[in-house]
Design a protein that fits this description.
homodimer, Tetracycline Repressor, domain 2
Chain lengths: 210, 210
Amino acid sequence: MASPRPTSDHPAEAVTDRARRPGGRSAAVRRRVLDAALAQLVQHGYDSLSIDVVAERSGVHRTTVYRRWRDVGGLLADVLNEASVDAWRPPDTGSLEGDLVAANHEVYAALTTDPVTVALIGASFRSDQAAEALRAFWVDRYDRCADITRRAVERGEIPAGTDSRQLLVAATAPLYHELLLLRAASDADLPERVARSVATAARAGAYAHR
Amino acid sequence: MASPRPTSDHPAEAVTDRARRPGGRSAAVRRRVLDAALAQLVQHGYDSLSIDVVAERSGVHRTTVYRRWRDVGGLLADVLNEASVDAWRPPDTGSLEGDLVAANHEVYAALTTDPVTVALIGASFRSDQAAEALRAFWVDRYDRCADITRRAVERGEIPAGTDSRQLLVAATAPLYHELLLLRAASDADLPERVARSVATAARAGAYAHR
């Protein structure tokens, strides 16, 4: 599960492609504005965000920023929309447990070492638009992760009829819960321990429809 | 799992006891101030909270509020401390699955129908003091819930060596994740579905130390 972090390190080729297309300039403006909004959020917090500050920081005219994004909610929603347009696929390690361990390591890293992820989640408690965009981001990620469940069923590891969303929420929710809500001390074994539990549970049919 | 809601409906007897003790007046002042802080948070949001507003709303002198609670973080931390001092015990239904279903119904109700719980969780993203107090509240609740695991082990339902905290976080985290972070549509089957999955997983040894 990748974090909702817009990748600033797009492959050069993709950037060039975009720049060549009509709308390339518009895409470049968008990138500057969204980068500025995210940097401002991470460095100075939600309360510091405004159209004026982001315009100033990005060097894009205030009127342009206002017309396109309207307000802070619009900016954050677009940051998350942009983060959704990537080629991320879930890990494919050859076993359910391996896939869940790998996915959980991504979540864990996002929650413990990436200030962007936590800042965007925090912002979702302040802005309904950001909350809705974050929800859409996660729905898309859980949908992509359905491959993990499908492959495990095909390998005969878990029962047919296993509910993918239930399995994946079970695998990831304890990480968000421990790290964001319970603010547990960081615990390098957590991603693997939870992944192993959920793989055991899935093999026992815990997420199969009855 | 009860919500972190201070019970305003203390049994009359307990209130009288307190009023009789030395410090009864102080306890009454505290109650007025904390009730005012919580009502302000729920009705007008975190940004509206201040020592002045809470003093005005509670009818307690500003200097008293400032001296005792210092700032908004101090007020929210004390709201949560007060919520921790109750006689809540986990449900005891005679089976692991029954206990988890009952506990999850409490969490679900707190997250879907009680604005206090969600407001306090939101505030924990704004105030480190509130976050620390919420963490302590939950640690205490999960500790109390260890009875659920102990009884299930004693009944022979699940393996000795089952980790209670892992089991209980697995049982509750998906509710917080779906309702607070993923903002899923409310789903009356969620508490029971997750509880049943976790009971199945626990019986299969998913939370037993290896």
